[in-house]
Amino acid sequence: MSALHVIEHPLIQSKLTRMRNTRTDNEAFRRLLEELTALMVYEITRDYPLREKRVDTPLEPTTGRVLDVSIVLAPILRAGTGMLGGVLNLIPMAKVGHIGLYRDPATLEPVEYYCKLPPELPAAQVILVDPMLATAGSAIAATDIIKREGGKRIQFLCLVAAPEGVDAYSAAHPDVPIYTAALDRELNEKGYILPGLGDAGDRIFGT
Ligand code: PRP
Ligand code: URA
How far is the CA of 134 from the centre of ligand 2 (A)? Predict the structure, then answer.
């Protein structure tokens, strides 16, 4: 069973509520997604390892601490790319791998159409990002791909999750923790999350 972390921070919840609002336009939606992602990254990186590093302040040398892990960020195309800026603002040295998947509207099965992952993958801490965990088909397939390419330490970061998706993902990848801003009620017959925020890709890109 994957560990499920629902991040209840007040700033995260306030921004998510604005994103859910159907009257929030594409520009505001994109900005909120980046801000919210950055806040969530702050939470999910709490336990990352540090190493000591000598540094000269204007007054004297001292020992500071810096991140001691390489980080690979893996957005699921296309909606996951809306979360890229939020992570890279905080972790500018992260490498980025892209995983192209779309959900077939009839079968809801994920279809892979692109994959480019950095060579650092096997030794890296991988953050897989996609705003929506619905049936979990896309996230499961993306995690399969990351593991197939040698990724070992993976965190899955989303914004809104359905209980059905959490159960399916946990069964497929019990070693990968899920971080979300909300665990919603259910999926509708078309595989949309209720209450959700609609089609994340369409709301980010205005399609
Ligand atoms: C959305 C979303 C996830 C997927 C979630 O992408 O961004 O990738 O659906 O659904 P699932 O958990 O049932 O797989 P979509 O397939 O609409 O593609 P897009 O990002 O290109 O719009
Ligand atoms: N993908 C989305 O973008 N939204 C949903 O509610 C479900 C899948």
Answer: 6
